Every structure is written in structure tokens, then in C-alpha cells.
Amino acid sequence: MILDVFVDQQAIKIEVPDNMLKDAGEFFNKIDSDMDKGWKMGPTYIENPDQMMRAQIVADKMLTAIDTENKPLIQLMAAYILTRVPGVKSVNIDIDGDPLNTEILL
User: Fold this and answer.
1) Which residues contact 106 (CB under 8 A, 6 or more apart)?
2) What local confidence, expressed as pLDDT, does residue 101 receive?
């Protein structure tokens, strides 16, 4: 599968291998478990992030992976979004440090 990601007007097509979508379920569950405890999103602490907020949090982690050119982590974060947000078309990542401003387009 492919996830279209936009970072500061730059379009990036992230290709996620099908096996990663299937095999990373345990890793994705760990991410969800961490977020179950609440998460600071920019200046706001969210006690119980909903699924869209979780995708925004993961997109923020993807931005860090893009900045450091960590391809496996980029793919894993894209795979999380693809599996947890059915029908996602693209992600427009906020680069100003507030994941709540990241847009997940369905």
C-alpha cells in the first residue's frame, strides 16, 4: 500500500510492504498501549487520545523519521496509520510541533 504524505509542501509517497501491514500488529499494539496512558500533543495534554489523534501522534513520529532518513521507521509509522485509519488517503504533517494541526485526509 502507499500513503501520500505532505511535509512543508513536499509530497512523499511512502510504500509500505504488505507483509509489514500484517506482521507489525504487536508493535502497533505497543504503540496504542503507550498512548492509552495519555499523550502531550503540542502544548495540550490529551488524557485519552481518539484514533484520529493517535494517527496525528504517529505522523509526528514519522516526521522525525523523515528528518533522520530512517526508512524502516517511516514505513512502520505509515503502516500504523494505514491499518488504524481505514480509508486514509493522505497525511499533511504539521512541521511547527503541534500534532493536533496535522491533517489526516480520508
Assistant:
1) 85, 87, 88, 89
2) 93
